[in-house]
Amino acid sequence: TFLAKGSAALEKLKDLCNDGKEPPSALFQLYTQAVLDITYFEENQLVDEDFPEETSLQKLKELICILSEPEDLVRECNIDEEPINMLGAELLECLYWRKGALLYMYCHTAKERREWLRGNIATFKKCLNDGVHYLMKMLSFRCPLQLNEDVLLEDKDTARLLSEG
């Protein structure tokens, strides 16, 4: 299972840290993979439970925070490298994909809760905007989009045209 894989990765990480022979990038990547494995299990629980109205928003915030930790950790360690150089494009894409997809799935479920939506429209819009931001960031790692402040991405065709140059 994903929890077992995540736990095994953390054990291996502990051994490698004690050994001191691995480059920092390998340690960051192993940690990131453990984070992805463990959060995948929790994300699936939220989806399987149809994002319980009482607890899912808090759990969503926690998961996004956890999925942000690898990139934050690289920055906090004062290593003179960008996160993409330490984690690699593939892992960074996964982190941002998971954050964006999680928010998308939450919003898709929340939009059906009319009563909740009426009282929480600002929260709903923030989740949508954050989700789009994460997905656009995910797309930018291999094919950076150079946008100025005047560009509004109002549909997928606009985003596709801009990403293709």
TrEMBL record:
<dbReference type="GO" id="GO:0000423">
    <property type="term" value="P:mitophagy"/>
</dbReference>
<dbReference type="Pfam" id="PF17716">
    <property type="entry name" value="RIMC1"/>
</dbReference>
<dbReference type="InterPro" id="IPR037657">
    <property type="entry name" value="RIMC1"/>
</dbReference>
<protein>
    <submittedName>
        <fullName>CE051 protein</fullName>
    </submittedName>
</protein>
